[in-house]
């Protein structure tokens, strides 16, 4: 594996090699010249990219006949460099708009397409895959995110809100009210509790 981070895999396929134009979607631009997002990403003359809130993926068409063993890929938290091993010529290089988790990022080559999968260091929408490249209109990304895409703490908050909304709709106690009830029940049987037998609030036998 070359580069500071990432795993390498070269997949052999009997399918015809993918042509560069086949991986580039048909894109539209807004009045500001920014691309309307496709899969929350966009395209340049060198690559196509997409993203979720926590990950980004780039598809880079390689020169004809080039395979994984012919390139050197360096994925750093701050940027990317892809070179030819034969003459060290740069195929693609640039800085990420925000830092990534280098150790969690991988790259593969399939049918002449270099695919780079990135794990973002923080959850944010990128306006471009590399600084200075054509930007997308981030106001038009699909921001709908599955609960499982959030961190554990945020998931807990979301699930609590959803539970409370359901309980209220059914006329049942919310999670906070249930917690208070549980604490009260525990306190009733704690040493010195006025609810214990002999106490002023102890239940009287029928």
UniProtKB/TrEMBL annotation:
**What PROSITE patterns does the database record attribute to this sequence?**
CS
State where composition is biased (Basic and acidic residues).
8-34
Q: Can you tell which superkingdom this protein's organism belongs to?
A: Eukaryota
Q: Show the Gene3D superfamilies listed in the entry.
A: 2.60.40.790
**Region Disordered, annotated ranges:** 1-41
Q: Where are the transmembrane segments?
A: none
A GO molecular function term, named singly, is: unfolded protein binding
An example GO biological process term is: protein folding
Q: Which PANTHER family match?
A: CS DOMAIN-CONTAINING PROTEIN (PTHR12356:SF17), NUCLEAR MOVEMENT PROTEIN NUDC (PTHR12356)
Name of the featured protein: CS domain-containing protein
